[in-house]
Amino acid sequence: MNISFEGKTVIVTGAAHGFGRSIAEGFASRGARVHVCDVNVAGLAETVKLCGDRTSAHVLDVGSRTDVQALVPGFGDVDILVNNAGGVRGQVGRPIENISESDWQTIFDVNLSGAFFMSQAVAPVMKKRKSGRIINISSGAGLGISLTGIQAYASAKAGQIGLTRQLAHELGPWGITVNNVAPGFVRSNPTTERQWDAMGEEGQARLLQNIALKRLGVPEDIAAMVMFFASDYAGWVSGQVISVDGGK
C-alpha cells in the first residue's frame, strides 16, 4: 500500500514530541506541507528539524478559540487535520474530592475543546472544497478507564470519541470524514516515561501481560493508523474509533 500526500496541506496539533512528532514526520515524508502546532517552542523546533523544510511551526494553545480562529484560517486550503494535542497537564490520579474546578477544566480544554475548536476552524474550507479528513487522537482511557486514575482525562477522551461520531454525521454530506485513533499505553513523552517508572517492575509486567502481543507499541504505530485514515484508502470510512493497543 503506497500512500502519498503530495500537494496536501496538513495540520498536526500537539506536535512537539511523541505521537504528534511521529505523525508530522509521516506526512512530511510522504510529500505533504505540514503545519505543526504546540505550546512547546523548543519541541516544535526539533520537530521541524526532523521533518524538513516542508514543515512550519506555530505556537498555539488549542484550548483558546480566539487563538485558533486567529491562526488557522491563514493556513489556506487545509486537507487534513490531526487533533493530537492532549495529555494530563502534569496531573496525577487523586480522589474525586480533591479535584479543583481548574484541574478539571484544563484537561478538558486541551483534550476536548481543542479538538472542537480546531475542527470548527477548518470546517468552512473543507465544506467549500467538498473534501477533507479530520483525525482525532483519543486514548484507551476514553473507551475504558484511565491507567492514571485521572477522572477528567478519561471523561474528556470519551467526549472526544462522541465528538468524532457526531461530526462524522454532520460533515459527511460534504465529503469530510472524521475518525478516531485510540492508542494504548506507549512510552512516547516525559509524562508516559514517569507513568512507566511509577508502575514498578510488577506493574510493568502486569501491563504487558494484558496486551495480546506482549509488548508496548511505538509512536510510529499510531502514526501508521493516522496515515491510513488520512489516505484515499479510507474514503468510505467515517465515524470510526480504532484501538491501536497491541490487542486487549
Summarize it.
The protein has 248 residues and is α/β, with parallel strands linked by helices.
Main attributes?
7-stranded parallel beta sheet; 7 helices; alpha/beta; 7 strands; 248 residues; Rossmann fold; 45% helix
Polypeptide structure, described:
With 248 residues, the protein is an alpha/beta fold. It has a single domain (9-186, 219-235), classed as Rossmann fold, CATH 3.40.50.720. It contains seven helices and seven strands. The protein has a seven-stranded parallel beta sheet, with helices on both faces. Helix 1 (18-29) runs parallel beside helix 2 and helix 1 (18-29) packs across helix 7. It is globular, with a radius of gyration of 17 Å.
How are the SSEs ordered, and which strands pair?
Elements: E1 9-13, H1 18-29, E2 33-38, H2 41-51, E3 55-59, H3 65-71, E4 80-83, H4 101-129, E5 132-137, H5 151-171, E6 176-183, H6 190-209, H7 219-230, E7 241-244
Parallel strand pairs: 1-2, 1-4, 2-3, 4-5, 5-6, 6-7
Helix-and-strand structural type: alpha/beta
Radius of gyration: 17 Å
Topology pattern, helix = H, strand = E? EHEHEHEHEHEHHE
The averaged pLDDT comes out at 95
Spatially, the strands of the biggest sheet line up as 3-2-1-4-5-6-7
Examine the coordinates and then state which fold CATH places here, giving the name of the CATH topology.
Rossmann fold
Number of helices: 7
Main sheet summary: 7 strands, parallel
Report the span from N to C terminus. Answer: 26 Å
User: What is the CATH level 1 assignment?
Assistant: Alpha Beta
Strand proportion: 15-25%
